[in-house]
Amino acid sequence: MTEAGVGIRIEGLSKRYGQGDTAVLALKEVNMQVAPGEVVGLIGPSGSGKSTLLKCLGAVTHPSAGRMLLGGQTIYHDGWKVRDLRALRRDKIGFVFQAPYLIPFLNVTDNVALPAMLAALPDAQARARALELLAALDVQHRAGAMPAQLSGGEQQRVAIARGLINRPPVILADEPTAPLDSTRALAVISILNSMARQYQTAIIVVTHDEKIIPTFRRIYHIRDGVTHEEAGEGREMNLR
Ligand code: ADP
To answer: What homologous superfamily is domain 36-63+83-231 in, according to CATH?
Structure first.
């Protein structure tokens, strides 16, 4: 695979917290690769290193050693290779969390458009792009509503739209379906899959959710800071 075709690549990534006797090696030479357009699952028990891995990839925590590439760019190689980590997070990475964290006093369109406005896209263009995403996610009829007026599933779709607005090559989703019932959880995964294909986004979904695990074609298991890869069932979802 050429570097330009890389969504996410992690090579020999290690993370140590603390020093000396109390040091914890949270990641031990982790390797991982997610192609553009691919959605993979990351599964592991509590304390296995999932959050640490997401925080390293999201440029929120310093790794201790190794290499990370996002969208063909080396962002870390035994040290950060990018000067402006805040711009990297804003432009290259979409975050989707368990709770939607919508801004309560902005309507749905402006919640989605905000990261694009912060990235200096003119307001009208940012809103047009937000509406296009809301339509793709089937919530365009809620465009003028306030977050409190939406159902949990609608809020989560709005949060996904916000994660996609800057067309990041990478989306990191941390337990995105935990609060949702089975139908809505599968709908969210189906949306992430079609968004991955449409925008060639590489997506990592950290989850414990038994409802969605059968949908992944590839799964990384993590235990005590060590990952291994496994083929998933890749069960097709016919919800959309
Ligand atoms: P998970 O997300 O899978 O529950 P974490 O990445 O949070 O796992 O934790 C992995 C290991 O690193 C655990 O042993 C945890 O106690 C340790 N750890 C996480 N954050 C810190 C920190 N800020 N300082 C020291 N140890 C930490």
So the answer is: P-loop containing nucleotide triphosphate hydrolases (3.40.50.300)
